[in-house]
């Protein structure tokens, strides 16, 4: 994938933070989506240059309003409903006042931010995340967003593999699925037992 590297970082942050804050199922278990501000800050830091200060509890609550809608974008692409995905991202960009701003700070070269410098933490982050998905959806790789297809998991992913055949949120889910397929094959052939 030839995303610009800053954009790749932001798509990575979007996937990471949506998965942290969205309640549902994760790798076979119920997941409450109750990440702490420190957990959210760590997700930003883990994805490279796109880093912010530690959010407050209130800011994480505000962010949850955006991540629920961002999750629905991945879900729409996953079922082939690109229209809903794009309209949802447009609404998110409007609501977060997304705007392109070239910025240079912290010794980095000039790079493109997707929100005004003075935007608050949640709205600024939401604007960046929505815009990162807009760039993906507006290009030939729109179908690279998806929802994990393992049982009891609804975590999102952005498929950056060369051939675009990713179906799982994680190696853990890929292995769970392989193990389940192995067990069902064995049952089918009368093997039984574990
Ligand atoms: Zn999964």
Describe this structure in words.
By secondary structure, the chain is mainly alpha-helical. The protein has a single domain, classed as Jann2411-like domain (Jann2411-like fold, Orthogonal Bundle), CATH 1.10.3300.10. Helices cover 51% and strands 9% of the residues. The chain has 6 helices and 6 strands. The strands form 3 sheets. A two-stranded antiparallel sheet has the order 1-2. Strand 3 (101-103) and strand 4 (111-113) form a beta hairpin. The radius of gyration is 18 Å and the shape is globular. The N and C termini lie far apart (41 Å). The mean pLDDT is 89.
Brief characterization of the structure:
The chain has one domain: Jann2411-like domain (Jann2411-like fold, Orthogonal Bundle), CATH 1.10.3300. The chain has six helices and six strands.
Overview features:
mainly alpha, two-stranded antiparallel sheet, two-stranded antiparallel ribbon, 6 strands, globular, binds zinc ion
Q: What's the main sheet like?
A: 2 strands, antiparallel
Q: Using the CA coordinates, give the radius of gyration.
A: 18 Å
- The structure class reads mainly alpha
CATH superfamily, by name, is: Jann2411-like domain
């Amino acid at each position: 994938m030839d995303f610009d590297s800053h954009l790749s970082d932001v798509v990575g942050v979007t996937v990471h933070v949506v998965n942290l804050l969205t309640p549902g199922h994760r790798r076979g278990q119920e997941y409450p989506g109750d990440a702490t501000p420190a957990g959210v800050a760590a997700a930003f830091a883990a994805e490279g240059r796109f880093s912010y200060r530690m959010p407050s509890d209130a800011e994480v609550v505000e962010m949850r309003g955006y991540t629920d809608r961002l999750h629905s974008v991945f879900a729409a692409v996953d079922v082939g409903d690109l229209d809903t995905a794009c309209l949802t991202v447009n609404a998110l960009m409007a609501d977060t006042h997304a705007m392109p701003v070239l910025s240079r700070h912290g010794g980095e070269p000039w790079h493109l931010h997707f929100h005004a410098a003075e935007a608050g933490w949640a709205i600024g982050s939401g604007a960046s995340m929505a815009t990162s998905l807009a760039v993906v959806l507006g290009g030939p790789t729109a179908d690279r967003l998806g929802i994990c297809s393992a049982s009891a998991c609804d975590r999102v992913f952005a498929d950056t593999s060369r051939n675009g055949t990713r179906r799982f949120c994680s190696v853990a889910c890929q292995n769970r699925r392989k193990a389940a397929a192995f067990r069902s094959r064995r049952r089918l052939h009368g093997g039984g037992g574990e």
